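Example record

The entry below shows one chain as it appears in the dataset: sequence first, then structure tokens.
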Amino acid sequence: MSGHVGDMTTKQEAILKTLKENCKDIAKPDWDDYYWTRWLRGRSLHLYTNPPLKCGDVVWRKEWNADNILEWDPPEVVKKYYPGGYFGEDKQGFPIWIEILGSIDLKAMYFSTVKKDILRYKVYNAEYLFKYLLPEQCKKHGRKIERCSVIFDMQSLGLKHLWKPAVDLLTEMLSIMENHYPETLGVCYAINAPKLFPVMWNIAKPFLEEETKRKIKILGKKYKEEILQYIDPDQLPVHWGGNCRDPDGNEYCQSKQSVTVAYFFCIIYIYVSESQYPCPELDLYYLVVCMGGKIPEKYRLKNIRENIDLSNFENCNVARGSTVQLDYEVTEPESTLRWQFLTEDNDIGFGVFKRTTDERQKKGDMIEVVKSERVDSHLIPEEGSVMIDEPGQYVVRFDNTYSWTVSKKVSYLIDVLPPDTENELQVTEL
């Protein structure tokens, strides 16, 4: 049995009854059996003494004002430059969210608004799905539709996206969706998977429930024929294999003049007008595909350093005319060495090297992996990563030999990310 309403075993029905009884003091009138079973399926039909719904979700929704979040107007930089959007539906009637992570200027986004507003934007879109899109899909198809499908486009996803604060932000997004919107995902069609995908998958999977992992289809780069088995072409922009274009010929359907978008907007406009959830700033950007892109300097906050949480950073002092070498053991090929650091008042030299012996070596005796250069880490925090093909002892080297008068304090966060050795997902090249 699936654990869905109308397809439950006697044991599953008993679990559902117990859950409802345990949570009756917080239950709302609109929490029907579809709502309750989503929580159970999201936890593999396990019932806890203190269900996550009761001990965590109610408190979280109050903290984030999730019930009224559609009254919030997201910052302009998030609306204009966080890539993605709802567009069309798949053959199961699930609305489609197109996520274009590779085109996000996430570092600039991080420094152009507060972190919580980026996370709040994801909550906004989730609430929009449940309050408006899904109810209209139910009316349109005459049956219950509880989930949304995702096209996760990884085109241009690279090492720059492994910046530690950005990774933390994205994993927090995953945690929010899994912990507070369980069983929301219909299918995830992951396309244009890069070589780096196993590393990124290894980062993401601890935050995903087993049921969520099973819904991910990896379609690689030659995906268009395959994806049309699940989505009709009139429900997709041309760029992703469909036949929808904007009136000006745009293949991404970014325009507010899109025919598909206009159809959905008519529905949403009527729904919002009669709703008890006023959305004065609700606009068509929630129904078109935003492509992200480079964020203009005008959005940059002045105090970049104040946005960085240094609680997990380590510190070292690089004496004048000296260097500091930090050793990291890499045991598996295709691991990723990742770094972030900043200095207080002056620049610093930085490079990555591979030892050729087990003993400390001079720069010229080691293999240069990342060229040593002076960086302005006192102005903008420096970040980066490099994929390691050969196991061994690697050195992150801070160089202050060019300064004979000033020592440098460096705050740094450096770690080694192993590849995904379990091969749980295989990239399918069609």
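Notes for this example: The chain has two domains: 65-299, 310-409. The two ends are 33 Å apart (CA to CA).
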